[in-house]
Amino acid sequence: MAIKSSNLAAIAKATGIEWDQWCSKLRAGGADKLTHKQIAELAFTHIPPAVDNPGWWAQSVAVAYEQQISRRLPGQAQDGTFQGSVSSTIDADLDTALERWVVCVQGRNEFNGHKLSEPARTSGSERWRYWRADFSDGTKAQVDIGLKGEKSSVAINITRAETPEQVSEWKSFWRQILAEFKG
What we know:
Blueprint: H1 5-15, H2 19-28, H3 36-46, H4 54-68, E1 82-90, H5 94-105, E2 121-124, E3 128-134, E4 140-148, E5 151-161, H6 164-182
Antiparallel strand pairs: 1-5, 2-3, 3-4, 4-5
Helix pairs in contact: 1-4, 3-4
């Protein structure tokens, strides 16, 4: 199964362990018969102590290995659904970016040909602002707005898609919305 080479390069760079070495370590630990969680735990034991965010990198190793052994397709979540994201950066603080996002999407009856299954929700923390929506096709979208220097990064995460094609359709739709949003 094809794995995005950039993921493997990023894993090797971050962990200091080349992908073929990861495969050997995981195979030796019986990873082919382990659950995702167990593979991530096994990978974690091999990550050097100096690595920043070792838990995140262990998850990345586990996902890439599952793709390597044809257990998971690129973009496929552990539950078998698919996910993807699109993002952009705007010249605004967190609250202004969220307010602009809400104005951009409010009043829409359909999103990519699907209705909201319940009203969209907003929330925030000190460092983030969020907009979440569930759609009639079973997909979900979460907009994560975070600071990127003096600007805000706006990432739209699509989850619960049934196929990679459905993710692709949603990504095309959200790119159009981002273009309107940036206006």
